[in-house]
Write a structure and sequence with these properties.
Structural class: mainly alpha
Order of helices and strands: HHHHHHHHH
Distance between the termini: 46 Å
Strand content: under 5%
Length: 249
């Protein structure tokens, strides 16, 4: 059965667009959430275990029996965390290898269908190589966004929450409050800075896409270029897009 391109609609916002390809992958999302929780626990627990071990060594410098008794369990847990982390890394890689090829395929198909709905004039006014590169760029950038959230954002947010609660309840409430306030301020400032650079990033991405399109079209038509001895003009034409890419910021 051929796809009905007339009824294929795509979200025009980033979050709904990504969710379109993740909403039927909840088992993978559950796996990534569990892995993120393990990473967060390791990030907060390992420094504490090292602290306990160092305190035990310095507290019983002359009594090896008591020192070993105090160090044994924290040391076992600490080294066990290394094994657990290694296993979760392998599991994380396995989920990536299963999830992202499916997302790649779905995005590329949807983008191709969406592209085919455009008018003939649209294709006349745009480089075919540039349009093709945009399709692949969308799939690659969706993977980057998902990977950033599940690797750099979610585990660290959990770790900061765990650390704040631990400091508040175990050490001193003021330390937990300070860490929480610092975290909120850091996230807000990072968001403002990232938002201000969005325009620059968009211009750079557009320039890079046009450059890739020009190069792709030049290679595709290399026979005609050689027949008409037009290589110098092709290089000069390409150089314009290279300069636009360099000056896009």
């Amino acid at each position: 059965m051929q796809p009905d391109i007339e009824t294929t609609t795509l979200p025009n916002k980033l979050a709904p667009f990504i969710w379109r390809y993740l909403k039927n992958k909840k088992i993978y999302l559950a796996g990534f959430l569990f892995i993120g929780l393990i990473w967060a626990i390791e990030m907060t627990l390992s420094p504490y275990l090292l602290k306990v071990i160092i305190d035990a060594v310095t507290h019983y410098p002359q009594n090896q029996a008591k020192m070993l008794a105090a160090v044994l369990i924290p040391a076992i847990i600490y080294f066990s965390m290394s094994i657990i982390m290694n296993l979760t890394f392998r599991w994380h890689d396995y989920l990536n290898l299963r999830l992202f090829p499916e997302i790649y395929a779905a995005i590329n198909k949807d983008m191709f269908i969406y592209l085919m709905r455009h008018s003939y004039t649209f294709f006349q006014n745009n480089f075919s190589g540039s349009l093709t590169k945009k399709i692949f760029d969308i799939a690659e950038n969706v993977e980057r966004v998902i990977s950033t959230i599940k690797v750099a954002v979610f585990p660290r947010i959990l770790a900061l929450v765990i650390s704040s609660v631990t400091l508040f309840t175990v050490v001193q409430p003021i330390f937990g409050i300070i860490l929480l306030i610092w975290t909120i301020a850091f996230v807000y400032i990072s968001y403002v800075v990232a938002s201000s650079s969005e325009k620059i990033a968009r211009e750079y991405g557009e320039a890079a896409t046009k450059l890739g399109g020009v190069m792709s079209d030049s290679v595709s038509n290399v026979v005609s270029t050689k027949i008409f001895a037009n290589i110098a003009n092709e290089i000069a034409h390409l150089d314009q897009y290279i300069k636009a890419l360099v000056t896009s910021d």
